[in-house]
Amino acid sequence: MNFQDGSLYPENQEKLVITAAPYGPEWMPEDFPEDIAVSMKDQVQKAVDCYNAGATVLHVHVREPNGHGSKRLSRFNELLDGIRNRVPKMILQVGGSISFAPENEGEVAKWLSDDTRHLLAELLPAPDQVTIAINTNQMNVVEQMLPRDVEGTSLGTPAGLHAYREMTIPAGPAWVEEHIRRLSANGIQTHFQLANITQLETVERMMRRGVANVPLVLTWVAIGGGFDQPNLYNLANFVRATPDGAVLTLETSMLNVLPVNMMAIALGLHVRCGIEDNIWTQDRKAKLGSIKQIEQLVRIARECSREVADGAEARRIYRIGEFYASAEETLARNGFAPSLKPRQLRAA
């Protein structure tokens, strides 16, 4: 992305899109009972509360009645239907890391099978987006966390730490291309969750080959453990590599969330918050629920005179419903340079 004179002026920036991740599948309900919704009614109400607080994108996971993350697609359908009826303008983004929680104590957190994850393209009602990882990769979500971040929670137990420390992302090329094809065929937008520049380069190559004719709507996921560390240098490099036509959200974990989101607000990028990413105030004196986190970002954005997008504006910014007919159109719409063509030799 290019930053010209005036790029930091709010009148030259898109309105802020706030993504809320309030379901936090890595936590157990007893880790934060005041904020973790368990019943279907409460999970739907959490989405309504996030929207009313200012979030227009909802990162969706779902729990079973016993509080564990659900692996049942029928349970996702039930939650999506309930949210659609209550907040139809909200962008529903299903987490493609469907229920990676370990089933039994001591097990490693695993994603569902490739075939089962493809069925996310068949959810009804269809979500607006499904997130997708690129390139099989380590996803040690606890690597950069400090003992104080997980003290007194299920992640602070030996079993919890082991489960999430050893997690990997299965995202090989054949599966990724087929998943994007299925999502696009059903009118569902692919939201790219990227760990570093190398994964962004893979997406670009896919677009140049014509196997990902979609908007480049993406999140830089800086959580360490196989992903970028959330520091200024990694952020600047990733932003610089991202083309001007892309829509970029920043994501990180624990006490990194607020400062990274403040940088996103200033730079004209978009933000994500919620208990899936962090459960603490910056001084760790109390836990901070998803609604309070959204309200905090709304206040900061207003102090910067950057307006927060409403549901209709977020859909336009996120280019919901857009798909492209060719690699050439995809590259142009996303701000990439055209693909190289062989030189045409003139006749002597």
From TrEMBL:
Keyword Kinase included in the entry's annotation: no
Top-level taxon in the UniProt lineage: Bacteria
Keywords on record: Metal-binding, Transferase, Zinc
The keyword Cell inner membrane appears for this protein: no
Matches recorded under Pfam families: BKACE
Cofactor annotation: Zn(2+)
Identification of the protein by name: 3-keto-5-aminohexanoate cleavage protein
Organism: Ramlibacter agri
